[in-house]
Amino acid sequence: MKIIFSLPGNEALAEKIAVGIHAETGICIHRQFPDGETYLRIESDVRGREAVVVCTLHRPDDKLLPLLFLCQLLRDMGAASVCLVAPYLAYMRQDTRFNPGEAVTSEYFASLLSCAIDRLITIDPHLHRRNSMQEIYSVPCDVLHAAGVISTWIRENIPQALLIGPDSESEQWVSEVARNAGVPYIVLEKIRHGDRDVEVSVPDVEKYKDYTPVLVDDIISTARTMIETVGHILKAGMKPPICIGVHAVFAGDAYRELLASGAERVITCSTIPHESNGIEVAEMIIAVLV
Ligand code: R5P
User: Fold this and answer.
1) Which of 106, 158, 199, 250 is positioned for an S-S bond with 255, CB 3.0–4.6 A?
2) Ligand 1, closest atom to CA 221?
3) Is residue 219 lining ligand 1, measured as CB closer than 6 Å?
4) How confident is the prediction for the chain on average, in pLDDT?
5) Is residue 84's pLDDT more than 80?
6) Tell me: the pLDDT tens digits for 89-114?
7) How does DSSP assign 275-289, residue by residue?
8) Active-site residues: which are they?
9) What are the CA-CA distances from residue 58 to residues 22, 250, 274, 285 (Å)?
10) DSSP class of residue 263?
11) Are residues 55 and 86 in contact, defined by beta-carbon separation less than 8 angstroms?
């Protein structure tokens, strides 16, 4: 029987997974010494068992060291394997050296994690310039996609939805969600007149005036991408859009700013605990762990 551990903040998801795969919830004491260093103690017997550690990795710098320590401790205590469930995987965006001397942190982060675990399960990692996780991770990775649960949510909650992709790069993703949800989609058209002079138009705007626009993106971080797109949609005379993000990173005040931008509603998947969560991802993790 697998045994599930979680880092603070991941208890709810870990519990759902434990129930879903009929696994034991492991007991781990985790606290900080007065000087800020991490204390960990495992009180469950993990010898010869497959351990699963649940730790989503937004704002990763504070989480990484306790996570590496926990994985090392599980191995020291005799666990047969350690599988990390990180629904949001950090450090995927600095995937190249844009300027001389810059750290390619996606590679460094991947090599640190790969040393500590035997398997990684994650959801929609931001693979932009890389084709596969295996280019940077040396352990087997299960890459899950939220498109299915997002399509279902749209089908069940938004009558007469129109999916909107902010740019041509989003077309692949938006078209898949739209197809599964059985709704139409459009992609905004950008015409660049100069470095700072970009015209954005909404195609077929008259045809879709009565539809509810739905924006879908993988990460909402500063929310600038969503806020700009909301602006273009409202300017074109369409209804206020519903904004859906897979990962509710929301840097600083981004969530409030997006709500204030004229969006009708903001919904995210539960890969990062946040008040905007409305689309559950536990089931798809359970499906690959059983
Ligand atoms: C970009 O490639 C991603 O798909 C997102 O559009 C981007 O990360 C969103 O970032 P922000 O919320 O900071 O505009």
Assistant:
1) 250
2) 12
3) yes
4) 95
5) yes
6) 999 999 999 999 999 999 999 999 99
7) TTEEE--HHHHHHHH
8) 190
9) 27, 10, 11, 18
10) -
11) yes
- Which residue's entry shows tokens 């209804």? 239
Q: Is the pLDDT of residue 195 over 90?
A: no
Q: CB neighbours (10 Å) of residue 61?
A: 9
Percent of the chain exceeding pLDDT 70 equals 99
The total number of residues written for the chain in this structure: 290
Distance CA(240)–CA(53), nearest Å, equals: 40
Tell me what the mean pLDDT of segment 241-269 comes to.
97
Q: Cβ distance 164 to 204 under 8 Å?
A: no
Is the CB of residue 170 below 6 angstroms from any atom belonging to ligand 1? Answer: no
CB of 221 closer than 6 A to ligand 1?
Answer: yes
Rounded mean pLDDT, 185-207: 82
pLDDT in tens, 155-177: 999 999 999 988 887 888 899 99
Report phi then psi at 33, rounded to 5. Answer: -70, 160
Of 91, 78, 36, 57, nearest in space to 68 by CA: 57
Q: Domains in the chain, start-ordered, CATH in brackets?
A: 3-145+282-289 (3.40.50.2020), 147-270 (3.40.50.2020)
Backbone φ and ψ for 90, nearest 5 degrees, come out as -80, 175
Of 267, 258, 53, the closest CA to residue 146 belongs to 267
H-state helical runs in 38-186: 61-76, 105-116, 147-157, 171-181
Dump the DSSP string for 146-168.
Answer: THHHHHHHHHHH-TTEEEEESSG
Cα(64) to ligand 1 centroid in Å equals 23
